[in-house]
Amino acid sequence: MSGPLAVARDHGRAGSGIADTLRDEILRGIHPPGTRIRQEDLAARHTTSRIPVREALRTLESEGLVTLVANSGAWVSRLTLAECEELYLVRERIEPVLLGMSAPLLSPDALDALDDLAARMKHADAEDFLRHDREFHFATYAPARTVMLGDTVVGLWNRTHHYRRAFVTAAHARHDGTAHLDHRLLVAALRRGDAEEAAHVLERHIRRTRIELERHPEIFGETRAR
């Protein structure tokens, strides 16, 4: 097939591929918050025109990973400490709701997979912990069918990911095992069918990270108020 429809389809596939690659690089910390993303560089790298590049950037903007400024360009999204606190406060409220919707639908096999991920995180380095932690929590939410809550949670995770990396790195340096205990408690509550307790564990788990981030304004390039 040729013509405008085929061209649009090719641009769509190319845009998805570019978005997948750039998303992975941002989440792995290759492009830190505030990094300028140049469309011409992406187009050259992927041997394509700027049309699929623009589609990719719009996709990542909708996911909270990229900030587009009209007539200026694109940057990896960054947060101030106050903005990050706000997003974590939202996460504390809505992720337990999402977990409550998902918990009754988790199969025994899914719970076994969560146990396996929790065990792997206990001995993982900071970067592997981040990857498994994201997989763990998203797996607890996966069965829920939502209109917008699931996408909202993904966007919040994406926007706070870099700062969570800094928190996890610091926690590993001081051998803090609190997160591992939380994961075990969460799976145990889900196995008992106690969605309410699982939601409470999750809320405390998110709040603990928020409070720890508040103690480290230097992560955001800020100084502690005197």
Automatic annotation (TrEMBL):
Lineage top rank: taxon: Bacteria
SUPFAM superfamilies: GntR ligand-binding domain-like (SSF48008), Winged helix' DNA-binding domain (SSF46785)
A Pfam family it matches: FCD
GO terms, molecular function: DNA binding; DNA-binding transcription factor activity
Occurrences of domain HTH gntR-type (ranges): 12-79
InterPro entries according to UniProt: GntR_C, TF_FadR/GntR_C, Tscrpt_reg_HTH_GntR, WH-like_DNA-bd_sf, WH_DNA-bd_sf
Record's keyword terms, sorted: DNA-binding, Transcription, Transcription regulation
Name this polypeptide is given: GntR family transcriptional regulator
Source organism of this protein record: Microbacterium testaceum (Aureobacterium testaceum)
Lineage of origin: Bacteria, Bacillati, Actinomycetota, Actinomycetes, Micrococcales
